[in-house]
Amino acid sequence: MSFKQMEDCMAAIRPVDDPDLEARVRSRLHRLTKPPGSLGRLESIALRYALIRGEELPPVPRKLMVIFCADHGVAAEGVSAYPQAVTAQMAANFVAGGAAISVLCRQFGIEPLIVDAGINGPTPAGVREAKIAPGTANFVDGPAMTRDQAAQSIALGIRIAREHPGVMLGAGEMGIGNTTAAAALLSVLADLDPQASAGLGAGATPAILERKVAVIRRAIALRRPGPSDPLGALAAVGGFEIGAIAGLILGAAAARSAIVVDGFISGAGAMIARAIAPAAGDFVFYAHRSAERGHAAMLRFLQADPLLDLGMRLGEGSAAAIAMTMIEASLRLYREMATFAEAGVADAT
Fold first, then answer.
1. d(CA 154, CA 186)
2. What's the predicted TM-score (pTM) here?
3. Is 97 helix (H, G, I), strand (E, B) or coil?
4. What is the number of alpha carbons within 13 Å of residue 232 lying toward its C-beta?
């Protein structure tokens, strides 16, 4: 996909505002056999989904969880409690069905798609090979990736979204060191000190966290990425899976498809996507408020109201899978409940 094709994708993204459609959806919600507003946020979710699809009665969609996997050169700085080999091992575990996201996908009828966006090593069997490079570079020593590679990662996500029009997409990830990259992007794009953006990630000790904060500060001081250049920020301190999630959001927005982002790392992808095309945010449901320290600040920056708050910080798309079922439930209630007139039930006077 060329830069021109990416620009065409951006040009196709429009806000979901449609006052006439909104009025018709609200009218149906009001006429369903229940007290007005009694389904709470489920009603607003159904309304938002209808606006995203541009249809008064959108069909219940197929659900696809896209899990982008990639390694990070910054892992060499000792910013994670786990060795880098875990990225490929967990990608294989996703395929084998042994991970938390695998269980949730089976439970909720979500199709998983595992994508190698940059694993440092051979692509595990059953994983879609789309490797941009065998992991990013250590962003303490130089940019995490070239600007062209950053564009390639975004193009990967756009391409996958285009392959699945009308599907409700979930965005998940796996990559040792990726909470460091996500925290660095949050610091750059929201102008936060790394002490506020960086957290424990996958079980880091206080000593590892202190090292992570120092690494991010040093990288930002050396690379000097800025919020006005999201592609440059991604290239400086990001990750291939984060760029791919940004592209998945952009591609979904261009196709008027709903997308559910998971947590902190997926949220970094949403920050990139919104910085590139602000209207893309209209198509995003934020699954949950992660226990990762910087996620609350990220959600405030995104002006996002997450669907869940379960104290989770697993990643993989785990919270997104649960949130997707809430969206499906809201849509089924909206579509399948009878109106007062259809059921022969007296309405309130």
1. 18
2. 0.97
3. coil
4. 10
Residue 208: helix, strand or coil by DSSP?
Answer: helix
What share of the chain has pLDDT > 90, as a percent?
A: 94
Cα dihedral: 113, 116, 122, 126 (round 10):
10
Cα(56)–Cα(251) distance, rounded to whole angstroms?
A: 22
Q: What parts of the chain have a pLDDT lower than 70? A: 1-3, 349
Instruction: Name residue 158's beta-bridge partners.
Output: none
Given the candidates 3.30.1330.60, 3.40.470.10, 3.40.50.10210, 3.40.710.10, the CATH classification of the domain at 63-329 is 3.40.50.10210
Active site residues: 316
Distance, in Å, from the CA atom of 58 to the CA atom of 45, rounded to the nearest integer, reads 13
- Tell me the Ramachandran region of residue 308: left when phi exceeds 0, alpha when psi lies from -120 to 50, beta otherwise: beta
Q: Rounded to an integer, what distance in angstroms lies between the CA atom of residue 127 and that of residue 184?
A: 28
Per-residue CA distances from 134 to 38, 122, 180 (Å): 51, 9, 18
Q: Within 13 A of 298's CA, how many CA atoms are on the CB side?
A: 35
